[in-house]
Write a structure and sequence with these properties.
By secondary structure, this protein is mainly alpha-helical. Helix content is 39%, strand content 0%.
Length: 96
């Protein structure tokens, strides 16, 4: 049996997402959301007890660099190649 989404539910979800839907759009969304819920119901009906999660196709290991402190550039090194004036009038202030 196809899922039936009430028009008020569609309007409520649209408000939560800060979307303004016209009547035609809301009606179309009712149909699209019903199809999505039907697919979810089909998946929920499957026995997936022994199926491992497949959110990542490859194993995710060491995806973040270590957060080791490292020396930074000195102020002079950081500004060495900076121009005194850039087109448009903005300049890098020189101190000293």
């Amino acid at each position: 049996m196809p899922a039936v989404i009430e028009a008020e539910v569609v309007r409520h979800v649209a408000r939560l997402a800060r979307l303004g839907l016209g009547e035609d759009e809301a009606e179309r969304m009712r149909g699209e959301l019903s199809v999505i819920l039907d697919y979810v119901a089909e998946i929920q009906a499957l026995d997936l007890h022994d199926v491992p999660p497949t959110t990542h196709v490859v194993e995710v290991k060491n995806v973040l660099r270590s957060d080791d402190p490292a020396p930074s550039l000195s102020r002079d090194d950081a500004l060495r190649e900076a121009p005194d004036v850039i087109a448009g009038g903005f300049g890098v202030p020189r101190i000293g």
